[in-house]
Amino acid sequence: MAEGLAGLENVDLTVIGNVADDDEFHGLWVSPDIDTLTYSLSGRINRQQGWGVADEALRGLSVLKELGEETWMTLGDRDLGLHIYRSSRLRKGHARQAIADDISRAFGACCRIVLSTEDVVQTRVKTEAGWLSFQEYFVREHCAPEVLELSYQGLDVAAPNPAALDAIANADVIVIAPSNPLVSIEPILSIAGMRTAIAGAKAARIAVCPFVNGKAIKGPADRMMVSLGFEATVGAVARRYAGIADTLLIDTSDRAFCGDVKSAGLCAVACNIVMTSLEDKVALARTVLATALSAEACGVVP
Prior knowledge:
Blueprint: H1 2-6, E1 14-17, E2 23-25, E3 28-30, H2 32-41, H3 59-66, H4 77-91, H5 96-107, E4 112-115, E5 122-127, E6 130-133, H6 134-140, E7 149-153, H7 162-170, E8 173-176, H8 181-189, H9 194-199, E9 204-208, E10 211-212, E11 215-216, H10 221-227, H11 234-240, E12 247-251, H12 258-263, E13 267-271, H13 278-293
Parallel strand pairs: 1-4, 8-9, 9-12, 12-13
Antiparallel strand pairs: 2-3, 5-6, 5-7, 10-11
C-alpha cells in the first residue's frame, strides 16, 4: 500500500509503522516492520520473498550457525549491517525516531517513516505450547500453532510518538492499510492517544480490507481472527474500524457485503484490492485517493 501511494505524483506521504514485532537477535535490535518499509521505499527490498534486502548473502549467519547459535531468524549480511548501526545508536541513547530518519535518509527512502512510539512494545502470542514472541510464532513456527491469546507487552505505558500525532493531525487523507488487524494495526491503534487522534482528525479516513472472500490477502490474519473468536469477514473489519474510518474499500468479489459495512457506519467501496505487482499497488492507491476526494464516496464503484 505504501509503495503504491509513494508512486503517485503530488503526494507527500508519511507512513506510521508498527514496532510491536521488534525483538533482539544476537545482541542486535531488529525492527522487521520498519525495516521492510525502509527497504521497500528505498528500492532495496527482495521482491521475490517480500522482505529482506535484494542480492543478499548469509555469510554472517552461517558463522553464527557454525558456532552453535540459533539462526531461524534469517538476517542477511546487509541486513545485519543495519541492525548493528541501529543497536549502536540505541546504546548511545539516541532517539528511535532520529535513528529511523537517518537510516531512511541514507538509504534514499522516498517518504518519511514514523514509528508509532519511542517505547518498546512487543506482541506475544499464546499457543498450546505456551507464550511465544511474535517472531517465534511467525518465523520459527511458520504461523502454524493455533493462537489462543495475544498480549502487547509495554503497551500500557507506551506514549505515542509526537511525530505520529503530528502526521495524523496534519494529514488530508489517512489510510489504514490491509495489514493484519490484530498484530500490525492494533498495536498502533492501542497506544494511548492514537485512536483518539485518528477519530478526531480532519482528514478523510480510508481503510482497505485485509480479507477477500473470507481469506487473508497475505499471512495468517484470517486464522488468527477466527481462533480468537472474531470473524474473518468484511463486516468484522468494518466494525473494528468504526469511528476511525469513514470508508472501507472491499474487493469486488465481496460486493454482496456492502450492507454489512454500511451497518457498521462506514461507506463501502468495491474495487480490486488484491495487489500482486507494483502496478496493482499504484492502481489501488489511486482508488484510495479518488475515494477520499469523491463526494460520492458512499457509492459502490464498479
